[in-house]
Amino acid sequence: MGAIEFFTTATGTDLDTAFSTARDEAAWERGHGGYTGAVAEKDEVTLLDEPRRSEAAAMARAEELICAGDPRIDDKWGPAGALPLTTDSGEDGWLFFGFASC
Fold first, then answer.
1. Residue-level pLDDT at 31
2. Which of 16, 79, 80, 81 sits 20 to 30 Å CA-CA off 71?
């Protein structure tokens, strides 16, 4: 069993609600059988103490953290990372990212 990087955005001001929504949507899109390689595999999320960014800047920061092997998100069985963002349409949201089993 391997792991793959995932990046998923969800809108909302509440981290836990947005995470739950992102997981539900990923499970609907990729199935409920496990090993989807998506945020659906994650049970927990870790808020990284980061400022709110644009979607592009949040994605760039997430890629930096993954490439650096940040221990907070460098485990396919561990939590997803979360960065606060402002969507291109001006809504508050979150970027969820990390490694998921596939």
1. 66
2. 16
